[in-house]
Each structure stands twice: as C-alpha cells, then as structure tokens.
Specification:
Elements lengths: L3 H13 L2 H11 L3 E2 H5 L6 H13 L3 E6 L2 E6 L5 H8 L2 H17 L2
Antiparallel strand pairs: 1-3, 2-3
Helix pairs in contact: 1-4
C-alpha cells in the first residue's frame, strides 16, 4: 500500500524525468513566461510544449495565470523541495567518491 506522501511525490519525479520539462523549469526559473516564449527554444510545436506544461501543472511545479489573451506560467520551486531532500541523501556518496578520485590523481606520477 502506498503512503499519501509517496502518492503526492510521484508526479513530481515523473514530471522532472523528461529533459524537455526540466528545461522548461530552467526557463521558468528566470521568470514568468507565456507559452510562445517557452516553446521558442524547442524544435516542437506549441501544443507539444503545452502538453509538457500540463504535466508540470498537474505535478504542482508550475502555476498559470491569464494576462489578457495569453497564459503566463510561473515556477513553483518550493514543490521541488522533496526531490531536493531525497537527492541530498546521495551527496555524501558523490563527495566521498570525488575525494577518493582526487587523492588517487594526486598520488599518480
């Protein structure tokens, strides 16, 4: 049986699993943007970008608001906090491995 926390987190991990959605989050970290501006860097249609935005909306990672005829999207970075905490568990692993690699490289002639 899944816990309520796990069911709430799953859409976030699924949403950030796709590289297009991660890039959309990067763009939104720079500020609010309409779909047209978000779609510009991609070689895909606006409807395809809108589908990716829908996944991010459903996961609670972005919010939208109307401004005249366009929808502006806004990053909700606080929703990434759980993923950040989970990834933080592995920081020690990488730090230890990189320290060992550094020591090895210093010892090599």
């Amino acid at each position: 049986m899944r816990s309520a926390t796990t069911e709430q987190e799953t859409p976030i991990y699924a949403a950030i699993a796709h590289p297009v959605r991660r890039r959309l989050l990067d763009l939104l970290a720079e500020g609010d943007r309409p779909v047209k501006a978000l779609a510009a860097p991609f070689a895909m249609s606006r409807p395809a970008v809108s589908q990716h935005l829908k996944v991010l909306l459903d996961a609670g990672l972005v919010a939208e608001r109307r401004s005249g005829r366009q929808r502006l999207y806004h990053l909700r970075a606080e929703r990434l906090q759980e993923a950040h905490r989970w990834l933080g568990r592995y920081e020690r692993f990488w730090r230890d491995h990189l320290e060992r690699l550094g020591r090895y490289l210093e010892e090599e002639p």
